[in-house]
Amino acid sequence: MAFVVEDGTGLINSNAYTSVAFMRAYFADVGTTFAQADGLLQVAIIKATRYVENRFGGRWLGQREFPEVPQALGWPRLYVMQPDSCEYYTGVPEPLQRAVSEYAARALTTELQPVPTASPFVTRTKKKAAAVEIEEQRLPGLQLFTAIPAADLQLRGLIFSGSYTYR
C-alpha cells in the first residue's frame, strides 16, 4: 500500500493525515530526532491515522468538505472554527497533524490500540427465589483507551467532547 497524505482535497485513497517531513520538523522543535528510516515512520503515521479515525472518527466537528466523493478520511471538514479566530480550518488542521505525529511516535514503540478484553466487572445475573434458577452472563466490556495527553489534548476544538442533547 502506498503512503498517501491527505492534501486537503478529500482524496479517495489517502491513509495519512501528516507527512514524515512534518513529523520530523514537529519533533525537531523540542530536540527529538528519529533514527528510523522514512518507511518506518510512514508505517507509524498510517497506524496513528487509523487510530485517530477509529477512536475519534464519529466525533469530528463540522461536516465532510467533499461529501460527493468517497473521501477516505474524516478530514478535510467544513465549519470547524479555529480557536481565537474568526476563520474556519481548511485542509487538515495543524493540531490534527501534531496529534497524529505524537501518536505515530508512540506507535514506534508500542501498540496504540490494545486488544479489547472483556471486563470481569460487567455481568448480568438473574436469580429466581421460588424455583432455584441462576443465570449469569458476561457482557462485552467497554474498550478503554489509554490517555496520551500530548496527543489527545491537540484534538480539543476538533471533536465533540462531553455529552450533548439534541431536541
Description:
- With 167 residues, this protein is α+β, with helices and mostly antiparallel strands.
- It contains four helices and four strands.
- Strands 1-2 form a two-stranded antiparallel sheet. A two-stranded antiparallel ribbon has the order 3-4.
- A hairpin with a 4-residue loop joins β3 and β4.
- α1 (20-28) packs across α3 (94-107) and α2 (38-56) crosses α3.
- The model has no long low-confidence stretch (mean pLDDT 87).
Question: Structural class of the helix and strand makeup?
Answer: alpha+beta
| Helical content band | 25-40%
Rounded average pLDDT: 87
Provide the β-strand percentage band.
Answer: 5-15%
The shape is: globular
* Order of the strands making up the biggest sheet: 1-2
Report on the biggest sheet.
2 strands, antiparallel
User: Terminal Cα separation, in Å?
Assistant: 44 Å
**Uncertain segments of ≥5 residues (pLDDT<50)?**
none
Tag the structure with descriptive keywords.
167 residues; 28% helix; two-stranded antiparallel sheet; single chain; 10% strand; 4 helices; 4 strands; two-stranded antiparallel ribbon; alpha+beta
